[in-house]
Amino acid sequence: MSRTWIDPLSGFEPEKAPREVATNDYLSPQTTWNETTRFKPKMYKVGRLNFFYKWPGHGGHLWSRTRYWPTRRRVLNIGGTYNQKTMRREKTILDKRPIWWTIAFAAFLLMPFAVPGDLWNTVMTAAAVFGIYAAVNLCWMLIIGTAGIYSLASYAVVGAAAYGATYIAILTGIPWWMLPLAGAAIGLVFGVIIALPAMRLDGFYYALLTLGVVELGRVYVIQSRVFGSATGGLYGAPSYLPDDLSQQDQLLYGYYASLLVMVAALFLYRFVNGKRLGRVLRMAPEKKEAFAEACGVDYRRARVSVFLLSSTAIGAIGGFYASHFGGASPNLFSFDTLLLALAMLVIGGIGRSEGAVAGTAIVVFIDRVLIDWGPLRFVLIGLIMLLVVLFLRDGLFGIKPQFRAWRDKKKSERRATRAEKGGEMLPEEATETENKDEIYYRRFDKMQRDFIKRLVTNEIIEEHRSRPLGQHSEALDRLLIYFRRQGQVDKYAILVTEEFKAYRIVALSGHRGTAPRVVEDKVYLNPNEAYHALFLRRVQDLLET
Amino acid sequence: MNWSFVIANAITLACIYGTLAIGISLTWSSLGLINMAYGFIFALSGYGAWLASQHIGPYTPVVMMAGILTGVLGGVFVNALAFIPIHDKPNYQLRGLIATLAISLVGNQVLLWSFGPRAKSLPQLFGAGSVNILGVVMTADKIGASISAVVLLTLVLMWMRSSRRGLEIRAMMMNPHAASIVGIGVRQTSFSVMALTGGLAGLASVLLAQTYYVAPFSGITPMVKGLSIALMGGLGSVPGAVIGAVILGTNEAFTSTLLGGQYVLITQFLLIILILLIRPRGIAGILDKAREA
């Protein structure tokens, strides 16, 4: 802690031994500044910023981009910038979703060749179901997500279209490609019927009403003799598969056909959600309808058109369903189907096409491939659904934005806890102060006081006591210079009541014409004693601030 | 045509469905939660009553109390799982609806797993006799069901009018935000609301057990009916639910006698759609100022 300081003035009297005094170790005046301004928050190397890989690119290619007919759209949304540090052109893929979709489609296409042989039949049947359900869910997502109509009757429309198409096919013997058309017509009619109350009811009233419609359909189908109450469904619709195929080929063609239906539904989703209707409806979310209306957006019309479009599409898918399964079963109307379908939407996240597809894939996999699990698989689906709903705001595909929002919240919380008030001036005071230099002066002064306080040690005080005037060690000098630099108001001074006999400590008023005030009664007999007493007072005042 | 049969049926069904509908209506208006697990609570309390009748004895009070208590437990369970964690999160109402649906999915499967698919029947609670009142022949079972439903519902409504807890619940129904401002705890009130409505479901389950039996999936149809009645009466209104129950009970009794059982749901939903088209917020329709959906 302590070291010895040799008075440099001792060199004037080389005949005497140099004066040596114990003093502090050297402490850099930068110390407090460095400590206060050091960057203290804990930093992590990854995950703080969006990471985009920078592709190289040539400025000349800026305008010759691949665009696909008939739109002017690009295959990938690539942003180009000029990096001034590397002096190169950089390209960034701003939206990677087309890449993921491409990979997913490739996986769907190649999936039949990668499934192990003993599971092949089960998986291919499930995969065909997945294609159809994904198509229905995409259309349903248009109704719930884009149009914001909480209709639970989508699978009832599928069922109605499938039953109707099968019935017509049995009666008239139409070819298979007429079934989706018939289904679409039935879906449109059903959509109009269901859409009528949707114009007057809102939100959950409508959801509950459609739930009733589903139950109505189920009871009707189960009890109606025309629709096969005895055989557990209505069968006899023509299949779109050629007759002379082996069972494996049938499954394979069925799978690709339903995949095609899914792709068609994706196109529909894209063209409704991403074009005019979707834009209009994004303008009029729930509880902001009045605003949209005031802006001249006819959101009711948009909602009903989306609803009717989707219902027609769902009806067409219902016709395809009839052709695929050779008929329809009352299972389509059951509460369990509704629950599972809702689980598909919810798990993926409502309002996104990838959510509908991924959710369908997960639920159909659990429901149709893990058949050995028995009732446990419904429990599993229910648990996933429950967890997703309880913890995720927007399904699986909402995890990323939700995590980012959470991280930002945590970040700002931490930032708030480590915010250092300057301690010198309250925020209100600082805004009221005219002279902004004052704020910075006080901040600097606080930092300097913090440093000076660390210099006060017993050695320093002892050094001052032994010799108040003259050359001092570096630490004591800093202390004294600081004291001397203070303003005149309430500065301590020594009053000579009688030379060489009596000295007292007073405090200056700082104003001309106003006498200093007496601080203490004690009378010091010689100047050095008075100097030291004054020094101690100042040190005490310093340590008290 | 047997008028006495029609009237007796109408009264019984109205009483029981009214119980269910008031439960659903209360939950919605005070918590903003559409309890889709109501059917599960219904089935669960049926099993509770059945277990009590098997292990304790087939006495009416025991079976009834067991059903109601199981319903209370079920309600508290659903509340702890589906309301408490998300009631202050964004998009709560849709998430609450889906969470209760998920509970119903899991719960029904667990019931199926543990009790098997075969329906259980409860003992006859009110004897097998029948009474002739003003030319209307009522079996003891129907009289007992109607009277106990009416008595218990009246008790519940009186409790809601006169007790401190009831005052809190009614305050939540009027304006949940303002209620929380004046110091009514949303969470603890939600527990009492859900226990109450769960108890009502349990009561309805025991009373309906003669018609629907006790089976894992027996709760869905009564729940849909209760929902429809609550919807028709105006979600959140007790008198509306009672009127709706009377209308639908009458409709069900008439349709099943005049046209046949399979047309009940069709006429019922046509009626509901008609009423909702005329009054979008149901018969009572007080909801515009009660709760912002």
Protein model, in words:
The complex is a heterodimer of chains A (545) and B (293). Chain A has helices at 31-37, 97-110, 120-146, 154-172, 178-198, 203-223, 247-273, 276-283, 289-294, 299-325, 335-348, 353-369, 376-391, 399-418, 427-432, 436-453, 458-466, 474-485, 527-544, and strands spanning 2-6, 20-24, 54-57, 78-83, 88-93, 234-235, 327-328, 492-498, 502-507, 517-518. Helices cover 56% and strands 8% of the residues of chain A. Chain A is built from 19 helices and ten strands. In chain A, the strands form four sheets. A three-stranded antiparallel β-sheet of chain A has the order 3-5-4, with no helix packed on it. In chain A, helix 3 (120-146) packs antiparallel against helix 10 (299-325), helix 11 (335-348) crosses helix 12 and helix 11 (335-348) packs across helix 13 (376-391). Chain A is mainly alpha-helical and 545 residues long. The radius of gyration of chain A is 42 Å and the shape is elongated. Chain A starts with a strand and ends with a helix. Chain B is mainly alpha-helical. Chain B contains twelve helices and two strands. A two-stranded antiparallel ribbon of chain B has the order 1-2. In chain B, strand 1 and strand 2 form a beta hairpin. In chain B, helix 1 runs antiparallel to helix 8, helix 1 packs across helix 9 (220-233) and helix 9 packs across helix 10. Chain B is globular, with a radius of gyration of 19 Å. The termini of chain B are far apart. The mean pLDDT of chain B is 83. The chains are: A mainly alpha (545), B mainly alpha (293). At the A-B interface, helix 6, helix 11 and helix 13 of A face helix 4, helix 9 and helix 11 of B.
